[in-house]
């Protein structure tokens, strides 16, 4: 599949603001600064669709993007940013929890981890949460341009071991900078959850 069309729909905090048209949703989660906004822009080929910033904690709301007029890509606020106040942290947790608690259209969660670091406790907590709520998931390791092939192999082992992934094919390395394997990562993330459309196209 390809992403031919994408548009920003709404920044939401409360449930009442979420789309109600029942279209399938794929949500992106990860630590602040992991490269969530960047990968959204890389996959949609839209430079400024999601705001990228060197300052962590930029995305505080739940952003809904409509893709190919068919399904939603949902950008959740990043976690693990040390400098937020307790009040902000509580409000972040509530925002994410409210969304993940019972979100019927949500068909898959994409957990992003930085390939240069061992997944943090926050990453592991988030991953356990996703599994607890029984969502289907895939993991994308970001910023792969920053490592040599040798270090990428080491990183893969660390990520697989830390998240206890075994040899499942649920892990993919990507760089939003060089966008290598863009088509493959799009298929990896979206294809089987939005497959209905593919079948109809044939
Ligand atoms: N080298 C490299 N840098 C990247 C890549 N992806 C993101 N970055 C950089 O990492 C920083 C954070 O990127 P964002 O996409 O804003 O990260 P985010 O996860 O959306 O951050 P928050 O919105 O704060 O949660 C920016 O300086 C990006 O330019 C990548 O694939 N390679
Ligand atoms: Mg962001």
Automatic annotation (TrEMBL):
Protein name (record): Probable GTP-binding protein EngB
Q: Which Pfam families match?
A: MMR_HSR1
What does this chain do? Necessary for normal cell division and for the maintenance of normal septation.
Classification via PANTHER family = ENGB-TYPE G DOMAIN-CONTAINING PROTEIN, MSS1/TRME-RELATED GTP-BINDING PROTEIN
Kindly list the cofactors needed. Answer: Mg(2+)
Could you tell me which PROSITE patterns the record lists for this protein? G_ENGB
- Name of the coding gene: engB
Q: Which Gene3D superfamilies match?
A: P-loop containing nucleotide triphosphate hydrolases (3.40.50.300)
Concerning InterPro entries, the annotation shows: G_ENGB_dom, GTP-bd, GTP-bd_ribosome_bio_YsxC, P-loop_NTPase
Q: Which UniProt keywords apply?
A: Cell cycle, Cell division, GTP-binding, Magnesium, Metal-binding, Nucleotide-binding, Septation
Q: Give the family this protein belongs to, as stated in its UniProt record.
A: Belongs to the TRAFAC class TrmE-Era-EngA-EngB-Septin-like GTPase superfamily. EngB GTPase family.
- Spell out the CDD domains in the cross-references: YihA_EngB
Entry-linked SUPFAM superfamilies:
P-loop containing nucleoside triphosphate hydrolases
Molecular functions per Gene Ontology: GTP binding; metal ion binding
- UniProt domain EngB-type G: residue ranges: 22-195
Q: Name one GO biological process term.
A: division septum assembly
Give an example GO cellular component term for this record.
cytosol
């Amino acid at each position: 599949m390809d992403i031919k069309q994408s548009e920003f729909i709404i920044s939401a905090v409360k449930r009442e603001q979420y789309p109600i048209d029942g279209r399938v949703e794929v949500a992106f989660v990860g630590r602040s600064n992991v490269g969530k906004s960047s990968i959204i822009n890389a996959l949609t080929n839209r430079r400024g669709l999601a705001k990228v910033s060197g300052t962590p904690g930029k995305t505080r709301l739940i952003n809904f993007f409509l893709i190919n007029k068919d399904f939603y890509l949902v950008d959740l606020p990043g976690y693990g940013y040390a400098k937020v106040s307790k009040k902000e942290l509580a409000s972040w947790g509530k925002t994410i929890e409210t969304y993940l608690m019972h979100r019927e259209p949500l068909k898959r969660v994409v957990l992003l981890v930085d390939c240069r670091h061992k997944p943090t406790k926050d990453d592991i907590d988030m991953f356990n949460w996703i599994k607890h709520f029984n969502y289907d998931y895939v993991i994308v390791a970001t910023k792969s341009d920053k490592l040599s092939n040798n270090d990428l192999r080491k990183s893969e082992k660390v990520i697989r071991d830390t998240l206890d992934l075994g040899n499942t094919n649920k892990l993919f390395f990507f760089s939003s900078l060089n966008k290598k394997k863009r088509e493959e990562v799009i298929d990896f993330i979206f294809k089987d959850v939005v497959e209905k459309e593919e079948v109809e196209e044939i």
